[in-house]
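Q: Got a minute? One more chain.
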Amino acid sequence: MRSSRLRPAVAKNVKGGRPSNADRSSYFARREAAKVLRCVLHGDARRRAVASIKSLVYSPCVRNKKATFALVCQTLKHLPILKDVLGATTILNGKWKKQEELIYVITYDILFGQAIVLMGAAEKFLLLQKDALQSALAKLLVKKKVKQVEDLLLLYQTPEVTKPRYVRVNTLKLDVENALCKLERQYMARKDDMVPDLLVLPPGTDLHDHPLVMNGSVFLQGKASSMVAVALRPKPGWEVLDACSAPGNKTVHLAALMKGQGKIIACELNKERVKRLEDTIKRSGATNVEVLHADFLNLNTKDPLYSKVRAILLDPSCSGSGTSADRLDHLLPSYTAGQAADVADTERVNKLAAFQRKALAHALSFPAVERVVYSTCSINQAENEDVIKSVLPLAASHGFQLATPFPQWPRRGFPVFEGSEHLLRTDPTIDMEGFFIALFVRKNVINGNQEKQKHRKPSKTTRTKNPFKNGSWTFLHQRRGGRNSLRPRKNVKNKITSTPLFFTRMSQIMLYPPVTGWGRTAQTTHFVRRRIHIQ
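A: Always. Here it is, folded:
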């Protein structure tokens, strides 16, 4: 990160009329940072963030990710100071008000950042106002009775949380041992003790430009987030529905757990998030994922398209209160102003909880579903235990009951109803992120296939081993039911003529002497078909 000392930028003239590659890169990084900043600030003002700061910066459309991320974070960190400084001038009173975010970024660079190159209309305009900006900053220091910018920042100080860097190995492209070996060449890395395919690296490890991340061999994904797909436990060959799938990290995790077999329907309503979802799937190399641009609540549970869905992962929109540190929400104006628990947020949480209840009830209504995982990155009881409690009667009517994901995990749900010990919580203080996971399992499949085997009807027709090695004879044994009950098996390979021969009791005994273990009685009628190939 860049130093926050008062270090006025120096205007550099472009030699020969051509800027260097570094100057050009800085120019575009400021524009990309301004776009991210606009999205972040608008979402924060409406309490409806499109995505986290990291997600926006590290999207495929941002080229210079490292410089853009640094600019966005530092501009947000200094935003209260920048607003006060710009408010003391007339810079934002004119046409530049429409490019407010770009003005913030460039002003940060002029007052605290690097040398500014005289390229770009906004840069040229603000460099002409450099004396006015520095004068306003000096007056602000006097007003706040501090000597340095660092002391000024302490007045707006927000706690920063450090947590280990978790990366999930994409086993569709790379096995865990090889990934560990490659990462250990540069970093201290180890396997996580609970989540398969998860590696742990030191806090602050920057892997965003690492080749393994760029080619989709590993994904930057937190531990709690990686626990969600594992809790669902989809089997290879299953058909799985990811109800609210963007940005797609959990979707491609499901694909890896299923070894690329079966089918995953990735449902997403937001058009912009669908694009990000498709990029994630493409980078992962998953070939068994079908993207569905639709509202999950509008999917018809009786539609034959979903008649084979056996597992549903529901990670609906939530307040994100459990990942505020990881999302860098402490840099946002609403957090700084202490508005995290105001009335508007309470109303928003209640609206989210209403949607979450509908979505979970809908997920439990799919006829063939055996397992449903509900997860949020929220610490609010209204979005977690209260949602689960509200659907328990419906779940029971469909044959579902709560199961315990990761039984060895110590932190469980709040004890607000009987059975809450099955729920899983992660703690924002202890685990550095707050997640919630609930697992519903249909009762008749809890013990695997034992229930199915128990109620399976015996087949009326069984096929025995062909005693003739040359394959020219086929014997079918059926329960005694008269001549009309005997139906020759169709042959689809060759044109054949079938000659049914009905044997006497003596010929039956000669052909099939009683052998212990065949499980057939003497009262068995045999039908023989001889294959005669037509030349």
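A: Residues 164-220 form a domain with the Alpha-Beta Plaits fold (CATH 3.30.70.1170).
Q: Perfect, thanks.
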